[in-house]
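Pasting two entries for a bug report.
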Amino acid sequence: MSPDALETLKRKTEAFAQRAGQVAVIAQSKTDPALAVALNPSMKLPSASVIKAAIACAAVDAPGLDLAQPIKSGALDETFYCSILKAFDPDDTLTLKNLIGLMLIVSDNPATSAVLERMGMDRVNTWLHANGMRDTNIEIGFDDTALGTPLRANLTTAEDCLSLLKLIDQTPRYAFIKRMLANNLRNERIPKRLPDDAVIAHKTGTLNGLVHDIAIIESPVAAYYLIILADGLDDDAVFAQDVAAYSETVYALMAR
């Protein structure tokens, strides 16, 4: 990225964030971390489903947790809401690693609850703090009673999300997590307007008025991290469209 492109990125980022609500953004080159812009990087916001990427990493590192452990679909928590697990018969068996995949690829909440039940939120918080993400926490899970306003007790920052993405990107034992994130089926934000040859390993988070997306973007012409966290929005759908347009701008500038 040229100096002129970096200055343009700073202006575009400030313009993107000028709206009702709280917006935090980090865009950082993978090859040269000095090529970066950051807006409100330490602002604490509800993490929503972004925290699921950290849960996955903590599960990998949890002593004694067997990711090959078989679990019958019928033994998982019931939910009033849609769940991909409802496509399985009660006697169908999945492994804990399979459930992590469903937690990341389709952000399935019962799959997330199953992973948390087998490791505990304390282990996730211990993992977060041990890896320098001290402004991120998980205080409540993803069962039906936790969804909505209670889920806002879980907090994170753009800085911590960047640390999380770097760990996933650079740590060999998390390679399957990065692969799962690259197959995310919710692609209406950061990936929507990027070229087909770009690989986007990302995790979204959504609540009323809250729209997040954190991503590792790699292509033949660009490689960078992009974190967008936003809460208190007037119109979630409009903001998602704006995220897609901003992401396209970042890609073009990172490619210079």
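Entry 2 (this is the one that rendered wrong in the viewer):
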Amino acid sequence: MQRWRVLPDEIEEHRDVRWRRSEAARVETVEQAERFIEQVGFAACLTDSRHPGPSLYLAVCGRRDAVKPRNVQTDPETSRTWTLKDEIMRRGRVYYAKLARGKSMFLARRMIPHFRALRGMPRRREAERLSPTARAVLAVLRREWEMGTAELRSASGVTDRKTFNEALDALQGAMLVVPSDVVYRPKFSYLWELATERFPEELAMKTTPETAVRELARCFLDGAGLTVPGELARVAGLTRPEAGIGNRLLVKDGHAVAVARGTYRLARL
């Protein structure tokens, strides 16, 4: 059993309430999904109970022990989560992209500046930190408003599918590009656009890395109630030192209590 799953009953119950892991609070509509993301601050899309942190899939299932079946194509809860993801992405009211270690995540608008402070990429750093392929894809999107996957690949001159997908992942991770829509006919394809076109105000806001790690830690602890070593880092895509700084700042603010090495409890619990 993973260490972060050995939790007191009252903490699991706190997470059930905050992360919608109960039948009474489960997510059924896109409006409920957006409110859930706004409440938790950031959440994974399709992770199940084998992974820590809030998840849209668990909120759709409405239970803490939900595990995705092997054949997800015929699973109604996986299908509903996927459909909600498409609707959320299309509406553009919350941020959606591959962020934490290449995993798909939702961000409430208030959390966008904090993630950008830690993972965003200034334009002056693109030449040294992005691959030539990623820069080619980015250059096309800066000339165009929105493009489908196949058209973007052709316009950027990237012939290898794997290399192209890696470039898109890197651009999403740097908070430069987001998927804005998806079509299924005549064939499946995402539509892509610049993140600054969809979330201009949030991505223009300035904050310090110290403030960012504190707010990510605060956001997670409010929902988790208790965080154990490695949990915040894994869920938010932080390094262990970054997560430690964030949690210690919460202790300094009186928002958290350190109960053991690397373990922090929400002070008001």
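Dev reply: Rendering is fixed now. As a check, the viewer should reflect this: The radius of gyration is 19 Å.
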